[in-house]
Amino acid sequence: MSAPPLAALDLAALLCSRVCHDLISPVGAIVNGLEVLEEEKDEGTKNFALDLIKKSAATASAKLQFCRIAFGAAGSAGAQIDTGDAEKISRGFLEDDKTKLAWKLPRVLLAKNRVKLLLNMLLIAGQTIPRGGQLTVEPIGSGDSMGFKVSAAGANAKVPPAVASLLAGEAGEGLDAHRIQPFYAGLLAKDCGAKTAMVMEGEAVVITAQ
């Protein structure tokens, strides 16, 4: 089934809502920490608040850098993006005490929409392992038409409902800020002339675009 038309303004609004949703938590924590610094006199509590502010600011910065390329214009039309830069921002955004990233792509310049597709695949893969685990990025083919394989292995990894069809460009009913991102990834894949798939391989979720 083909995806129903989605107005450009609706797509932009839903993507903006998605980005704002990701930033609300760390920015809110910064605000709360600043309030504690203003009101508290206990040095231990103030130090805790300052540490919270530092960590939350780092998280917000990492998310903004990732979203700038994953959803933003990322340069002029026809621009290319270094996969080394993509690796750096992906590590800052996705890696923590529970989740690790194995990046096996060569360092090359690729068309910006192809790199944006990869980042969106990583974002989807990360959401399939809410308790953390291992994310692995591998190339499919080489050169300007390089495809990608992203694997997510972790406790209770599973393919979320409707995500595979959204990746295939089937919007269905009720497209909202939570569902827009995999649908957007499907649009990027189409623009790159790639076909996507999302399946379980053993206990790991595997997303491919080629």
In short:
The chain has a single domain (8-209), classed as Heat Shock Protein 90 (2-Layer Sandwich). It is built from six helices and seven strands. The protein has helices at residues 8-39, 43-70, 83-94, 112-127, 163-167, 180-191, and strands spanning 80-82, 99-103, 109-111, 133-140, 147-154, 196-201, 204-209.
Write the layout of secondary structure elements.
Elements: H1 8-39, H2 43-70, E1 80-82, H3 83-94, E2 99-103, E3 109-111, H4 112-127, E4 133-140, E5 147-154, H5 163-167, H6 180-191, E6 196-201, E7 204-209
Parallel strand pairs: 2-4
Antiparallel strand pairs: 1-3, 4-5, 5-7, 6-7
Helix pairs in contact: 1-2, 2-3, 3-4, 4-6
What does this structure look like?
The strands form two sheets. A five-stranded mixed beta sheet has the order 2-4-5-7-6. α2 runs antiparallel to α3 (83-94) and α4 packs antiparallel against α6. It contains six helices and seven strands, in the order ααβαββαββααββ. The chain is an alpha+beta fold and 210 residues long. The chain has one domain: Histidine kinase-like ATPase, C-terminal domain (Heat Shock Protein 90, 2-Layer Sandwich), CATH 3.30.565. The model has no long low-confidence stretch (mean pLDDT 90). Helices cover 50% and strands 19% of the residues.
List keywords for this structure.
210 residues; 19% strand; alpha+beta; 50% helix; two-stranded antiparallel ribbon; Heat Shock Protein 90; 5-stranded mixed beta sheet
